[in-house]
Design a protein that fits this description.
The chain has 765 residues and is an alpha+beta fold. Helix 5 (227-238) links the parallel strand 10 and strand 11.
Length: 765
């Protein structure tokens, strides 16, 4: 039997309804707002990675043309930005985090640390005045490299802390793991670096603060991933009640994690607007972005797998050093922990022990970046599994097949306590192998060899945790013109929420999606919301939107039944009307809105509460060719078979996966945030930081083999971060395969730049 996909409902490939505005330049971003009387704020930042400093004088800056305000730490009474993300250490304690001061007090700890700010009639005037502030810096020796942070002879970022170790976490069972290694027939070990990344969204951060004298409260317009957390945290920093601050987020040009966080500039513009009674804007340039926006990854890793004689995994042991930067960013201490909970991936590994040392360095703080710990875990495991295959003389597919968690083992609890509900890992790997023509690869390798090139193929089978336990309530209102408005506390950053959410509602109300408006990003419109992150919006918010649609549909039918003198059970909703089944007697939604006796009769509410994460999974296969004369890597083929459970919109899904894959390829081949030993960021512009470009990205063969989630009410698993999680290990395993087959090179660090690949080949030769 053929199942008809609804025109606008779940499963339909509806084109993004929000795109016209962006295509025709009608998007409205934070920096587009320019209210009358607006002033501009500029932040003076540290040019050195570590120093004690004294502000000698601000008088010249205060007297400069157009200047309205100069602030240093001595001038402000603002709380620090705090991280509440510390997890328990082995002794049951939680380490004390290093909070971020809004402006530094006597000491700077990384290049870009905020020292003072100036508010003037223009950004240029503010910047000119900032250069007149007299500051004496007394440079001190920094530590910038993750691998050196715990060495005995390195300087301490925070001497009063007594160590550069910020915390120590442990997961798993050390004794059980030691026993597994003791009986192993073979142990494979790998040591590597998970390179640091800068999240380069299209729209740099900006913030506009206004003092509303009539209401006696502040208003902040800011690009974010959720206004309610912004409101709560900033109200605490300012020392006011949350009701005294309205936060609004307009269009956002990319988020990827770092726009979740509260940054110093937001507090500064609010404080300045409050003092001056005028609008104050701060807008980042790209250099500030490189220096100050929370960065991602940056781990040093040692991983070992114990195996029996047949290549069955007995135990996994991991030692990880995670760089936090100079301070604890909002979720920074949680990221390596949540990644470690996914250490065993798709494999039936009974014994696990992970030790994590978080370390301070004189660098920009590190926090969540697309995937937030799960890409790090997937790369660790999938790189190690390929090394195991080489050591055991097994194919990458065979060693995985021998170790997959089998379908009959679900629900399956991992060694870290993760509870996977469903999974058919061999199913999507087998399909991916077929679609990638894995069996025909050897002939293609020989053809490349004849042309003087190295060809490699690599795979990654991954599982990730997303849509973490919790909820995201949805509120619907039937408007007087017959349209419907959805209010929800997530925040679109370009994912297509207006389209996806409308599909859930359209299916329940049988209403064209152009008649459904989606409202996000205003604390005045909703009193709470969880924001966007961890691929939670559609698995949680979408289900709630469907529930709200059902709730409103019942109310609409009841009003229509009363007006048409029929039973509610006899009413059907058709294209914006309520009709008695089998007749031509109907009322349109506008008439129904007019007939309602109470505003509450026109409101629908839904809240789906999920008690466990969902677990998307899949297989990525990458095929590359390397020119040994230049070290240049070309991706020739890329195949994905994913399990995302119930699919809401195939086109939106493909877009999310493609974008994630590009970011994963970027980490593997081009991107690296490099600090010198003096703490200077050497890759502080697009001249030095290698963003992936269109000519690097191949056609992506993407398909799904879905097993609906039993945790989620609609079977949805989430997909926003999955592409990034699968891509990096697949690409690197392909590069390593090419180098291994030609030169027995079993390891190369990320990014596998042409120089790094060329040098590895020369060293091997």
């Amino acid at each position: 039997m053929t199942v008809q996909t609804p025109k606008f409902g779940m499963g339909a490939s509806v084109l993004r309804k929000e795109d016209d505005a962006f295509i025709f330049g009608r998007g409205h971003y934070t920096d587009d707002f320019a209210p009358a009387g607006m002033l501009h704020l500029y932040v003076l930042r540290s040019p050195t990675a570590r120093a004690k400093f004294t502000i000698v004088s601000t008088e010249a800056a205060k007297a400069a043309p157009g200047v309205h305000l100069v602030l240093t730490a001595a001038d402000i009474d603002l709380g620090d930005l705090k991280s509440g993300a510390m997890q328990k250490q082995p002794d049951g304690t939680r380490a004390t985090p290093r909070d971020i001061p809004i402006l530094c007090r006597d000491e700077v700890s990384y290049v870009g640390d905020a020292v003072a700010c100036v508010v003037a009639e223009s950004r240029a005037l503010a910047q000119d005045a900032a250069e007149l502030i007299e500051i004496d810096y007394e440079d001190m020796e920094p530590v910038a490299l993750t691998a050196q942070a715990l060495d005995a002879d390195v300087p301490l970022v925070w001497p009063q802390h007594g160590s550069n170790r910020a915390f120590r976490y442990e997961l798993g069972d050390a004794a059980k793991t030691e026993a597994a290694f003791a009986k192993a027939k073979h142990v494979t070990r790998t040591v590597f670096r998970n390179n640091r990344l800068v999240c380069n969204y299209m729209e740099p951060r900006a913030a506009l603060a206004e003092w509303n004298a009539q209401e006696e409260r502040l208003v902040l317009t800011v690009g974010s991933q959720g206004v309610h957390s912004m409101q709560r945290i900033l109200a605490g920093v300012l020392g006011i009640a949350p009701a005294g601050l309205r936060v609004v987020t307009p269009d956002v040009g990319g988020g990827f994690g770092p726009k979740t966080f509260v940054y110093r500039e937001y507090a500064l513009v609010l404080d300045a607007a409050r003092r001056l009674g005028r609008p104050v804007k701060w807008a980042s340039d790209r250099t500030e972005h490189f220096l100050t926006d929370a960065q991602g990854r940056d781990n040093e890793v040692v991983a070992e797998m114990a195996m029996d004689a047949n290549g069955r995994f007995l135990g996994l042991r991991v030692g990880l050093v995670a760089n936090l930067g100079a301070y604890c960013s909002q979720y920074g201490p949680f990221i390596p922990y949540v990644g470690a909970t996914m250490s065993t991936g798709v494999y039936d590994i009974k014994a696990l022990h992970v030790e994590i040392d978080g370390v301070y360095t004189n660098t920009c703080p590190v926090d969540a970046y697309r995937g937030a710990g799960r890409p790090e875990a997937a790369y660790l495991l999938e790189k190690l599994v390929d090394a195991c295959a080489r050591d055991m003389n097994l194919s990458p597919a065979e060693i995985r097949r021998r170790n997959f968690i089998r379908p009959e083992q679900f629900p399956y609890t991992t060694a870290t306590g993760r509870r996977y509900d469903v999974g058919e890992f061999d199913g999507h790997m087998t399909l991916a192998l077929e679609r990638a023509d894995w069996n025909g690869f050897e002939a293609r390798r020989q053809a490349s060899k004849a042309a003087g090139r190295l060809r490699g193929i690599g795979m990654a089978t991954y599982v990730e945790a997303c849509a973490f336990a919790g909820s995201e309530a949805a509120h619907l209102t039937l408007n007087g013109d017959g349209t419907v408005t959805l209010f929800i506390g997530t925040q679109t950053n370009g994912q297509g929420h207006a389209t996806a959410y409308s599909q859930f509602v359209a299916e329940k109300l049988n209403l064209p999606i152009e008649k459904i408006h989606v409202r996000q990003g205003d604390t005045d419109e909703l009193d709470k919301g969880g924001g966007t992150g961890g691929s939670r919006s559609i698995p949680l918010g979408g289900v709630s939107a469907a529930y709200a649609g059902e709730n409103l549909a019942e109310k609409i039918k009841k009003i229509a039944a009363d007006e048409l003198e029929a039973g509610a059970a006899d009413i059907e909703l058709v294209d914006g009307t309520a009709r008695i089944v089998g007749t031509d007697r109907s009322l349109d939604f506008a008439a129904i809105a007019k007939a309602a006796k109470s505003p509450e009769d026109l409101k629908g509410f839904g809240e789906f509460v999920q008690d466990e994460a969902t677990y998307p999974n899949g297989t990525h296969i990458c095929e590359v060719e390397i020119d040994p004369a230049t070290g240049m890597t070309e991706i020739l083929r890329y195949t994905i078979v994913d399990d995302f459970g119930t699919v809401v919109n195939p086109i939106l899904l493909a877009g999310q996966v493609h974008g994630g894959v590009v970011q994963g390829i970027g980490q593997a081949l081009t991107e690296d945030a490099v600090y010198g030993e003096d703490g200077q960021l050497l890759t502080a512009s697009f001249m030095d930081y290698g963003m992936p470009r269109a000519d690097l990205i191949p056609f992506i063969d993407f398909s799904t083999r879905n097993v609906p989630s039993t945790t989620n009410a609609l079977g949805i698993k989430g997909a926003g971060e999955a592409g990034t999680i699968g891509a990096t290990p697949a690409v690197m395993n392909a590069v390593t395969d090419a180098l291994w087959q030609a030169h027995r090179i079993g390891h190369i660090e990320m990014p596998a730049t042409p120089l790094r690949v060329w040098q590895a080949i020369r060293d091997a030769a």
